[in-house]
Design a protein that fits this description.
There is one protein chain. The protein has about 45 residues and is mainly alpha-helical. It has one domain. It has 3 helices and no strands. The protein has helices at about 5-10, 20-30, 40-45. The radius of gyration is 10 Å and the shape is globular. The two termini are about 15 Å apart.
């Protein structure tokens, strides 16, 4: 489960986008053998 509170803080930084955060999250999940949220589900949990 992503830390959505931390991700919200990351979004406040310049040059950080939802797409970038999702790509990093999904890469970490795949390396760990986990199935990541799809982009739309990830985005809806951040809002």
């Amino acid at each position: 489960m992503p830390d959505f509170e931390q991700l919200k803080k990351e979004l406040a930084k310049p040059e950080v986008t939802l797409q970038l955060l999702w790509e990093e999250y999904s890469d970490r999940c795949r390396l760990s053998g986990l199935k990541p949220y799809q982009l739309t589900q990830f985005n809806s949990n951040l809002q």
